[in-house]
Amino acid sequence: MLKVEDLQKHFKRKHVLDQLSFTVYPGEIVGLVGENGAGKSTLLQILATTMKSTAGEISLYDSSYHKHIKQIRQHIGFVPQDIAIWEQQTVEENMVFFEKLSWKKKTKAQLEQLCLDMNLDRWKTPVKNLSGGMKRKLNLAISLIHDPGLLLLDEPTAGIDLKSRKEIGAYLRNQAKTHQKMILYTSHDMDEITALCDRIITIGKDPFYKELLARTNKEVLSF
Ligand SMILES: Nc1ncnc2c1ncn2[C@@H]1O[C@H](COP(=O)(O)OP(=O)(O)OP(=O)(O)O)[C@@H](O)[C@H]1O
């Protein structure tokens, strides 16, 4: 499980995250919502180990982030807001490139299957010819090459059509429920968040999301 205790992040005098404490269990999808600038990406970056917190403790499978950062990284799949793939290369070339960087080895057939699981069937197509939704699917497939137990997704469905969003949603649900992944996921689409997530964390000063979610039957944790 992922355990966060009293997490704080300040940028100089600006307090972005203040005393966040929560746990994510295997098999759970936890939604992270809040107004623009609330600190969602900051939190995901800290959990992904690409940014340091100001204070607090984080552990994954009972290993401390402070003490075991290298081992912890092996269990994390992170899809940042900005798509990071090679535009001139094909889907296949991208998957093979990132597989070579991965600590876990996969055959080409396994890599192609990862894409097909998300209905991404353009193996030989250059990325520049893919739609935005397909690029997001490829980015997600890349983050799964090393079979991470914790998936951190920053708006994985932003700007893509409903069909692709539904496909990504179904895929994530299957990853959590069948493969016991922990998924922490941000989106500004409240229908998607309430449909997909088991629990929801709201962060930020604006009470809008907290009040909106109080009308649903979801468990909500607010900071
Ligand atoms: N490296 C940095 N240096 C200084 N301030 C930063 C830095 N990174 C983020 N911030 C500030 O921290 C706050 C939180 O930003 P963050 O991107 O985490 O918000 P967010 O909730 O993800 O917003 P959005 O919904 O717009 O993506 C913002 O005010 C932002 O300007």
Protein model, in words:
- This protein is an alpha/beta fold and 223 residues long.
- It has a single domain, classed as Rossmann fold (3-Layer(aba) Sandwich), CATH 3.40.50.
- Helices cover 35% and strands 25% of the residues.
- The protein contains 8 helices and 10 strands.
- The protein has helices spanning 40-47, 69-73, 91-101, 108-116, 132-143, 162-179, 190-196, 208-214; strands at 2-11, 14-24, 29-33, 55-60, 63-64, 76-79, 150-154, 182-186, 199-202, 219-222.
- It has a 6-stranded parallel sheet, with helices on both faces. A 4-stranded antiparallel sheet has the order 2-1-4-5, covered by helices on one side.
- The longest helix has 18 residues, at 162-179.
- The model has no long low-confidence stretch (mean pLDDT 93).
- Bound molecules: adenosine-5'-triphosphate.
- Adenosine-5'-triphosphate (ATP) binds at residues 11, 16, 34, 36-42.
- It holds the Pfam family ABC_tran.
- This is ABC transporter ATP-binding protein.
- InterPro entries: AAA+_ATPase, ABC_transporter-like_ATP-bd, ABC_transporter-like_CS, ABC_transporter_ATP-binding, P-loop_NTPase.
- Residues 2-223 form the ABC transporter domain.
